[in-house]
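In this section we turn from sequence analysis to structure. A common task in structural bioinformatics is to predict how a protein folds when a small molecule is present, because the ligand can shape the pocket around it. The inputs are simple: the amino acid sequence and a SMILES string for the ligand, here zinc ion. Study the lines below before reading on.
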Amino acid sequence: MTKVVKSISSFLKDFGKATTEAELREVLLAQWDDEIGGTDDKHSRQEQFVSALEELIKSGKVRASDAKGKSSSRSIEYVKKNKRKNGNTGEEEEHRAKHTKIDQSEKEKGSLTNSASSSPAASAVAEYPDKPKPTGNNTILLFYAYTPSLMNREKHDAAIAHCYGFLKNLGVTGRLRIGREGFNGTLTGPNDAIRAFTTELRRWDNATFGKTDFKYVDNQPDNQLLPTLKVFPVTEIVTYGFNTEEAPLHMGGTHLKPKEFHKALENKNSVVIDVRNFNETVIGKFQPPENSADGGPKYLDPCMRRSTEFPEWVDNNKDDWKGKQVLMYCTAGVRCERASAFMRNRGVENVYQLEGGIHRYLEEFQEDGGYWKGKNYVFDKRFSHGADNADTISYCVHCDKPWDRYNAHQKCFQCKMEILLCNECQRLKPALKKSELFCPLCLPKEKEK
Ligand SMILES: [Zn+2]
Ligand SMILES: [Zn+2]
């Protein structure tokens, strides 16, 4: 906790002016090893952050004030001890934002950050993409790549240094996890800078990146740029907590292209496993067609709060899948690679994974979403996206109104998982107590008491 408070303090000291809570949160979360693919420790870090922020507010170092200007977000003001100038110009603010530096060496040795190269974007409060579709010159890049063999320590260090240097020069921001086993990233930047990076990766290590499926989401406005660049070492590029012998990649499930997966969803002998965490599955999931008398394929949600719960869930359920076609999917494919290998290593047969994940499926079925219902939770500033006619399939935890935006930054009082709270419930006076808010997984238990 002390370290967290220190990081926030140093961030505020550097920033030295009012900023929105959303922006502050974003920068700090990015700093703390924000997970891409596996969200395991994200919630405890968010919780730490919220508590630390509250402490700062209590101590008077940070003032929570009402919304200013057009921002719909509560803003946080850093109270300067001695001098506080009024009448800052926008330019001054922009200049200062550009020079925001984050001290994070204590938290993560070897991790590298820089401040956003384009501050107007960095300081914009993230919004859901409105219809009509966004236009802009930026690209969001999603990719992962396992290396043919584990990198040795030197090569691992060199990979981090090379990627960081290249990305920094290009003015690209976002997060790139690099383990000895491979790479997993969500990056944002100008179209040509993003392409220059992927071209460089192919040139630099063709054995690893020659066949990588780089997923580009083009035409993004500046407010979709992630605020900082973080390139950092990890043990696993998705955190399952199992060792590689338990899930050797060559045992991974057979890849199915979106159209093949779509067809497989019509097979009544299928089970469909969602490998993502519950906060993701609740806003969007596959809904296989019902096949009348014989019963349709079965959708299975492990209801995980974190990926490390997956192995136990498999062991408890795998006997039910004998003789079935086991389909699995995740956001963009990376989580299925090890998860399917783990399942096969545990004796599950006929395992198939959706190639390119929900991301590629929705590209293929952009108009009506195919068998996909709701939104695809993502780890960039879109937060989620869906087919053109995507329905809302989830509800506010307090009033039960249809709601699918995680914009309240509230957590379940019991398990600390991110929860859905609608705008109206966020604005209730008096405000809802934290102890009144529960996720759908914890609520039934809570009612029994
Ligand atoms: Zn509500
Ligand atoms: Zn909960």
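The mean pLDDT is 77. As an exercise, try to locate the residues that line the zinc ion site and compare them with your own expectations.
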